[in-house]
Amino acid sequence: VSGEVNLETASLIIDVTGDAILSQVTGDLAIDNQTTIGGETYTTSGTGGDLRVRNSGGTLQVNTDLSVGGETALITGSALTAQGTGANGIPLNANVNSAGNLVVLSQGDITQTSGNLVAPQIGLAANGNIGTTANPVQVQTTGLAVNPIDANVNAPGGFTTVNSVSAVGATVNQGTANNGGNNGGNNGGNNGGNTVTVTVVLQPAPLS
């Protein structure tokens, strides 16, 4: 795929040998495991190259395992400028394994009921909450950037906090506390009463 492909669907199956750069502007979108169209059955495997799925007009739900041979970006909304409750979240219900960096940008919350996010570096940013105390986002990575800073994330193998993470044109800058508070939320649930500044850059131009 040489440019961004526009979608209008509720269910998406991804099985691409190269890059897949996908965008939807209306309605909720789910990445599902399997569907049958015209007697043919299609099953999600992922991509051999980069994957970006952006839904600016609804939620983006991951319901099946994804294996990505390049970088990965999962995005709702088009501008994330302030912390606060918002619609159009990203529910994660399966594993996402990315050979390159992984960025998840949510206009609402980032929630996870099952699975792990696996990538060399991971960036998580949301207008709402990232995980919960009871259900933190499970990650396996060496470098992590979260915004807001009081994200609920669990990384059994540990991680190094990095200033920013970029993938397929989307960037998450590490959140900062303006009161010198505790950023223990990165380890799974201590909000520390921080006020945060959210700084997220989204560059949705097609790949060259």
Commentary on this structure:
- This protein has 208 residues and is mostly beta strands.
- 0% of the residues lie in helices and 44% in strands.
- It contains no helices and 27 strands.
- It has strands spanning 5-7, 11-12, 15-16, 20-24, 29-31, 34-37, 40-43, 46-47, 51-55, 60-62, 66-68, 72-76, 90-92, 96-98, 102-106, 110-112, 117-118, 121-126, 137-140, 143-147, 153-154, 160-161, 164-167, 170-173, 176-177, 196-197, 200-202.
- The strands form 7 sheets. Strands 1-4-9-12-15-18-20-22 form an 8-stranded parallel β-sheet, with no helix packed on it. Strands 3-8-11-14-17-19-21 form a 7-stranded parallel β-sheet, with no helix packed on it. The chain has a 3-stranded parallel β-sheet with strand order 2-5-10, with no helix packed on it.
- Strand 23 (164-167) and strand 24 form a beta hairpin.
- 46% of the residues are buried.
- The model is unreliable at 179-208 (pLDDT under 50).
Question: Can you tell me the overall shape?
Answer: globular
Assembly type = single chain
Record field, number of beta strands: 27
Number of helices: 0
Key attributes of the depicted protein:
208 residues, 7-stranded parallel sheet, 27 strands, mainly beta, 8-stranded parallel sheet, disordered C terminus
Report a brief summary of the structure.
The chain is mostly beta strands and 208 residues long.
Secondary-structure map with pairings?
Blueprint: E1 5-7, E2 11-12, E3 15-16, E4 20-24, E5 29-31, E6 34-37, E7 40-43, E8 46-47, E9 51-55, E10 60-62, E11 66-68, E12 72-76, E13 90-92, E14 96-98, E15 102-106, E16 110-112, E17 117-118, E18 121-126, E19 137-140, E20 143-147, E21 153-154, E22 160-161, E23 164-167, E24 170-173, E25 176-177, E26 196-197, E27 200-202
Parallel strand pairs: 1-4, 2-5, 3-8, 4-9, 5-10, 8-11, 9-12, 11-14, 12-15, 13-16, 14-17, 15-18, 17-19, 18-20, 19-21, 20-22
Antiparallel strand pairs: 6-7, 23-24, 24-27, 25-26
